[in-house]
From TrEMBL:
Pfam families: AAA_31. It comes from Desulfurivibrio alkaliphilus. Residues 2-164 form the AAA domain. It comes from the Bacteria. This is ParA family protein. Transmembrane segments: none annotated. Gene3D superfamilies: P-loop containing nucleotide triphosphate hydrolases.
């Protein structure tokens, strides 16, 4: 049975897609059958893998699940790594989910795929919507990139409150520090404060702010596909190892 890992934040531009692409690639390199489901209508993860959905694939097919979804899973240039590309019509996924009146629709859909993979990564759009609520129920883990500023802590607290209010399992939430610039005093201070705070459970390995990661828009490849020994490749690999250990231990 695959473990489902959602990369999620209320905020955009915090490194969700970068983490999805690079952690999923690290999982595949480590020998695990891995699937990325690009759930963001902007399709950034799909773009990085140079993959597009079939013209007929969209939110309705996604919600039909089963064969309609399996048919649209594509291979990538990397062994053991597949992707279900996002369709632009996902921007109205909220409406369709409203019709089905189900907060577990996505959970059912991904459950069908878990036999074929060890890990399923969900690259999520920002905001708290019916889609995100569905994602929270579908995912075993909700991994949250946090830029170490005061505001990002606030959004993390909001997410924890939302989980409590909706009676979701808060233990699913696993934050990590993203786009860290240690020369910035604020970053150092916020990390110092939060790293040990037991209510947040931050992963120990941060992802630094690195031009190499920014350049993925040009290279359109996971960072470790270029040079596996680069600082960015190493940072994601170490983050993945830590996360994988945590998942295995439970
Ligand atoms: N650690 C990082 N260092 C430098 N640039 C980054 C880093 N993480 C992400 N970026 C860049 O910042 C932008 C937003 O990142 P992205 O992963 O798309 O965020 P999100 O999916 O949360 O909207 C992208 O251009 C990406 O290449
Ligand atoms: Mg994104």
């Amino acid at each position: 049975m695959a473990k489902t890992i959602a990369l999620y934040s209320i905020k955009g531009g915090v490194g969700k897609t970068a983490a999805t692409v690079n952690l999923a690639h690290a999982a595949a390199v480590a020998g695990h059958a891995t699937l990325i489901c690009d759930l963001d209508p902007q399709g950034a993860a799909s773009y990085y893998f140079r993959v597009r959905p079939a013209r007929k694939f969209g939110r309705k097919k996604l919600l039909q699940g089963g064969k309609e979804v399996e048919k649209n899973i594509k291979g990538t240039d990397y062994e053991l790594l597949d992707i279900l590309p996002a369709a632009f019509s996902y921007r109205k996924l909220d409406l369709s989910l409203g019709d089905t009146d189900s907060r577990k629709a996505l959970k059912e859909i991904f459950r069908r795929l878990t036999g074929d993979y060890d890990y399923i990564f969900l690259d999520c759009p920002p905001n708290i919507t019916l889609v995100s609520e569905n994602i929270f129920r579908a995912a075993d883990y909700v991994v949250v990139p946090c830029i170490p500023t005061t505001l990002s802590t606030l959004t993390l607290t909001k997410l924890l409150d939302f989980f409590a209010a909706e009676k979701l399992d808060r233990r699913k939430i696993i934050p990590f520090f993203s786009m860290v610039e240690t020369r910035k005093r604020l970053h150092r201070e916020v990390m110092g404060e939060l790293a040990g705070a037991s209510e947040y459970r931050f992963l120990q390995n941060p992802i630094p702010y690195l031009a190499e990661i920014e350049r993925m828009g040009l290279t359109r490849a996971p960072v470790a596909a270029g040079f596996a020994g680069s600082p960015a490749a190493r940072a994601y690999r170490e983050l993945w190892n830590e996360l994988a250990r945590l998942i295995t231990v439970g």
